[in-house]
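Input sequence (186 aa), recorded before submission:
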Amino acid sequence: MRIASLTFMALALGLAGPARAQAPQKAVPQVAPQVPSQVTLDPARLAAAKAVVARAQGDRDTTLQAMTAPMTAMVQQMGLKQPDRAKIMVQEVIMPILSEHYDELLNLQAISFAAVLSKADLEAIAAFYDTPAGRNMAQAQPQLAQAQLTGMQHWIGSLAGEMQAKLAATAEAHGWVPGGNKPKPN
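Predicted structure, token format:
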């Protein structure tokens, strides 16, 4: 399960970037999660998905506490370079918000699980989390997620130069110039 790593990735994508850090934030309206139209979620299937998510996440406080270091790093990337100040911002602002809305995250994850996994599969996964190995995996989830996020950041960072060069070459091949998107005449 990579529930916590998906959480970190969503937060990283949602919070990262200097424009995000500098722009004034508006209140975001609460929007019901979107379920693919081809999937009808019966209550039993959704309940099974919620059971999986609850077991997979492990202890709420431990999971939230494990987010502190990555959130602090993101705040620093957003422009607040002093580690002590970034940590205070995370502790006083970000973590209380995440804690307050944590159940919303679990519900969104449950809907996602129910949309792609059968009730039987969800029940089997929940049964796994009731085993010693499953409980150990849930307990290790925060550390695994942090390691996965760090690994993903390093991996993407190691590819950034290659991607940038190929993006520039492709833009040039199409005749796109800075300040405009003019196609090259054929």
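Checked by second reader. Confidence is low (pLDDT under 50) at residues 1-33.
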